[in-house]
């Protein structure tokens, strides 16, 4: 299936600045390929610094009008955008599968998940309350109000090309901010389809601006170096996040950074075996292991180890690897050649360091970018595969003796995004949850994210939170008012 089978009103091959669909000033383009088949899907403009500055100009000019709108009016437009996404959910899902690779059941789920943030913030934007404080004297009144922070820049990844965009745009717009978005060059069509629906919903020109570019460093410098951009939201690697963090220092921008992870998935002796296996499968192998919150290390206690591994292997070998558009496919490709080469090299090095292959371990015959779902046993915490984010369908398993050892292994990382554990003990739930150094913890649950909950990490996994009321606050400034002369 080619991209031409998707509604032509959704397939855009241009960036969007100040209400206009635009090509790059240089005429340069980016080729976008289907990772499952290698087919050329199309080309989008390869924009640069000049177009980025034009997008910032547009967002700056639109800011006063958008922020002055009554929150109910902003909510109405966001709700219309949400309705259009739901109306076109099947086309958006197919488009995402074409350019990103994940199976249709996953892309359908992502469209609904991404839309949920728009629906949530359409309502939450009407609840940006101030506060009244007790005044120090009788002739004063002290209070605070919430105001939009200003122009926002968002840089989003390819692994969730719908939800990572809506999770940033929705709270920004609900707060009264305008935004410049740079989606991944690997998956621009999904982003541009959302832009087309936002335009159709009536969101005014300049409120959302979208730059497609392969020149991430140049665009990043333009966004971080412009004092009119008051907040940067980035989802991606820790290495790039640290660079953007440093570049934002001169203009003291507010930052939301969702960076790398090294999530432990801990199975204690008293866990419900079937629930733990199901949770590990969902957490580890969703999107072919290409999620920042997926289980990167699976820790299994001695007493349940043999039973867990037997069931886990049995279920992992049931995955149907193939083109995500084909019926019955349960796992698609990884995103590009660099990704699959990295995964294969990590598996080889783990085995050279003493890990043992339980199943998988090789490229899959379905195509150039497919890897067989893999389990490695005999893994130790000092191995590279237990220290680095894999971003692929490989499950390294570490055996442990007791709670203290599991917690020590889990926390032995500079990352702190997500962690998971399975136990039937309420005492252990509290003890372990409080001891794990992570921003999000799944307890007897392998899929944890939703729009009403705060999403984000600690340590080198990032700053700030997305989702929930806290996600709206990250796009606002608090202004304190002290009123005197009250008789």
From TrEMBL:
GO terms for cellular component: cytosol. Keywords: Oxidoreductase. Its EC number is 1.2.1.16. Residues 21-480 form the Aldehyde dehydrogenase domain. GO terms for molecular function: succinate-semialdehyde dehydrogenase (NAD+) activity. It comes from the Bacteria. It is an enzyme of class 1 (oxidoreductase). The active site is at 258. It holds the Pfam family Aldedh. Belongs to the aldehyde dehydrogenase family. This is Succinate-semialdehyde dehydrogenase. The gene is gabD.
